[in-house]
Amino acid sequence: MWVKKYEPEIALWVDDKDPLIFYRKIIAFAKLHLKKDGACLVETNEFNAEKVLELFKATGFDRSEIKKDIMEKDRMIQAHR
């Protein structure tokens, strides 16, 4: 509830037609700007972490993995080129 109270709606919700749109943008930026062996770390919703991981892997971040947060939930992706 705290997040909903202080974050703008645009930061919390995406169009259901493409819920991974921001990850696609982050990946495109990272591919252009990361050096070889660079890493990209993103936070994600625990319910679509697998989809985000697969997106990274499909776009050349073959050394990528899901990481757990302090609550032991799958909420982070660590992706290496």
Descriptive keywords:
3 strands; alpha+beta; globular; 81 residues; 3-stranded antiparallel β-sheet; 40% helix; 22% strand; 4 helices
What do these coordinates show?
- By secondary structure, the chain is α+β, with helices and mostly antiparallel strands.
- The protein has a domain at 36-81.
- Helices cover 40% and strands 22% of the residues.
- The protein is built from four helices and three strands; from the N terminus they run αααβαββ.
- It has helices spanning 2-6, 9-12, 21-33, 49-58; strands at 39-43, 63-68, 74-80.
- The chain has a three-stranded antiparallel beta sheet with strand order 1-3-2, with helices on one face.
- A hairpin with a 5-residue loop joins strand 2 (63-68) and strand 3.
- The model has no long low-confidence stretch (mean pLDDT 88).
Count every helix, treating DSSP H or I runs of 4 or more residues as helices.
Answer: 4
Shape: globular
Structural class: alpha+beta
Helix content: 25-40%
- Distance from N terminus to C terminus (CA atoms, Å) equals 36 Å
**Which segments are poorly predicted (pLDDT under 50) over 5 or more consecutive residues?**
none
Strand percent estimate: 15-25%
Strand order of the largest sheet: 1-3-2
Condensed summary:
With 81 residues, the protein is α+β, with helices and mostly antiparallel strands. It has helices at 2-6, 9-12, 21-33, 49-58, and strands at 39-43, 63-68, 74-80. It has a 3-stranded antiparallel β-sheet with strand order 1-3-2, with helices on one face.
